């Protein structure tokens, strides 16, 4: 089973945001999306999640057009960690993560199973220590990790992460992407938008690179991240460096 964008284009207010993009998110892998600001990464993620409807083409989940699947059913199979998730209400971090169980909670309300999942997700994201703190009082990085915990609490087959490392310190960047790899090993399909080429190189099985709404390349990470491709897309040269003791190469601007 996979989550598939088939030849999708999306135009809003006369501006083409995506142009005939085809991409699949596979169970058991981490797929990274790279590209300059404004290249269409978040738009593609929102289309894959069902939030945006393509002008042409289709997104398929469970071998069905995602538009034909009820929202609650979608939420049982794909979870989204948005780039920004702010609330001014005084919810505790625990309450925010519990919201991720909505698609699983029946008429009789929350169960011990729901509480166990919340507890596990808080621990997996290193947020249990502030489970009782009010969400708006947390730092940007702490809120980001709580938002990730909420997405994990949905217990879905596919996880879509929009810049999950953007506000994190290096330790938590590593922890979040190691968690993504662990989830993939457990059978989840993870798509993550990244700006750090070295994180993409280190943690992604495949990489797709977008530019001006077009998918320039989609391939295994080492093949996709060719220096000539990166220079063409980002407008600056890169050197590919093999570091002793590391299986994956690093990239530095030339």
TrEMBL record:
ABC transporter domain segment(s): 3-237
Molecular function (GO) terms listed? ATP binding; ATP hydrolysis activity
Q: Superkingdom of this entry's organism?
A: Bacteria
Instruction: Report the InterPro entries cross-referenced here.
Output: AAA+_ATPase, ABC_transporter-like_ATP-bd, ABC_transporter-like_CS, P-loop_NTPase
For this UniProt record, the keywords arranged alphabetically read as follows: ATP-binding, Nucleotide-binding, Translocase, Transport
Q: Describe the task this protein carries out.
A: Part of the ABC transporter complex HmuTUV involved in hemin import. Responsible for energy coupling to the transport system.
Q: Which family does it belong to?
A: Belongs to the ABC transporter superfamily.
Question: Which protein, by its recorded name, is this?
Answer: Iron complex transport system ATP-binding protein
């Amino acid at each position: 089973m996979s989550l598939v964008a088939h030849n999708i284009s999306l135009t809003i207010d006369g501006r083409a945001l995506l142009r005939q993009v085809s991409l699949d998110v596979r169970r058991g892998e981490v797929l990274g999306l790279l590209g300059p600001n404004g290249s269409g990464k978040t738009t593609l993620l929102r289309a894959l999640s069902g939030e945006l409807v393509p002008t042409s083409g289709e997104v398929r989940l469970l071998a069905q057009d995602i538009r034909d699947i009820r929202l609650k059913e979608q939420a049982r199979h794909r979870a989204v960690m948005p780039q920004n998730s702010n609330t001014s209400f005084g919810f505790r971090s625990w309450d925010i993560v519990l919201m991720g169980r909505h698609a699983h909670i029946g008429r009789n309300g929350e169960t011990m199973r729901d509480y166990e999942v919340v507890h596990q997700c808080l621990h997996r994201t290193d947020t249990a220590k502030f489970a009782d703190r009010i969400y708006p009082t947390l730092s940007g990085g702490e809120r980001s990790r709580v938002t990730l915990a909420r997405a994990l609490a949905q217990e879905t087959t596919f996880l879509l992460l929009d810049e999950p490392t953007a506000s994190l310190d290096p330790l938590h960047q590593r922890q979040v992407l190691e968690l993504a790899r662990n989830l993939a090993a457990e059978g989840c399909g993870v798509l993550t938008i990244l700006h750090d080429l070295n994180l993409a190189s280190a943690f992604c099985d495949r990489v797709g690179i977008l530019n001006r709404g077009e998918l320039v390349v989609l391939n295994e990470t080492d093949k996709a991240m060719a220096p000539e491709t990166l220079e063409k897309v980002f407008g600056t040269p890169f050197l590919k460096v093999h570091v002793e003791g590391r299986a994956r190469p690093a990239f530095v601007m030339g």
